[in-house]
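Researcher: Next sequence.
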Amino acid sequence: MSKPSRILVVDDNAQNRALAQATLEDEGYEVQCANSGDEGIQAFETSPPDCVLLDVRMPGTDGPTACARIRELPGGKDTPIVFLTALRDIDTFDRAIAAGGDDFLTKPVRPVELVARVRALLEARRMSVEIRKHYELIRKQRDDLMRLQLQKERLTALIVHDLKNPVHAMDLHAQVLQRNAELPERARASVTHIREGARSLARLIMNLLDISKSEEGKLVARLGAVELGPLAREVQTALELRARIAGVALECEGALPSVHADADLLRRVLENLTENAIRHAPEGSTVQLTAREVEAAIELRVTDAGPGVPPELRETIFEPFMQAAGDRPESRSGRGLGLTFCKLAMEAHGGRIWVEDAHPGAAFCLTLPKPV
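Model: Next structure:
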């Protein structure tokens, strides 16, 4: 029977060390732990392991410095080194790779992913030179993709934070102009369109922010009892201007019950669905919000009389920037991030969202739990 591979875990956090050790030992690996960069280097010198898990930020000798020193030791050049870090930014990633890291995982690390990465690196170490060259090419491509992802996240953060204030300023200045009694009617109509555009842009910015949060596992619903009636009226007030411009009526049918939800996220979900419905509803038609009890949940429906959603698009319509094949004018597709945000927000609630045929038009349906 072959000897189990030995993994050296270097992390100044005892809980992180314990989690990595338990995860790897459950998979049959032998694990040695060190609580500092210097202790990890010494452990490597005494008995070189088959793989090293190395925290980036540690007091004294940090991860990249320890990695560079390990690479200079006998056997250190070919030993796989995986960096574990809570710092999700390009500078940390570049420094880790430049120091000689083979892989890069962000905390909190999922045990399944940790085991998969360690196993892949150990197998790659045993590969022939020819196969290893191909692996190195694939690894470089993976590193390039990771770097692009981090750049995208940084760009998203810059866009969101740098655009929020100017957009709110546009809306405020437009409101000031609307209060000017001497403003000509034609100019007042233009100001109305400016306000509507600013509000739409603000919703897009918030959708982008929350989609980014969801990708990082940070979109959390703060649940509580929410009265749907006042919330629906708030949504209608926010979109009254857009509906009037489009010649569409907004209507809530019947008494709306309470739900167990995050009030802010739910309000923005309903705003996105209602805005989407207004955009596709024919002039002179009505966009309706209805609710009904379904077993232990409340089902909400936002319905319009527009072109509807073809059956082949009803799953993919919630994907970012999805477009219909051929871009047919009679079909409808989600061209932005609003519907993607709605899906992620419903998942954060533990609910779901889907689309049905409304005969005519489309009905976007979502479920939420009843108040406890």
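Model: The longest helix spans residues 129-178. Residues 149-215 form one domain.
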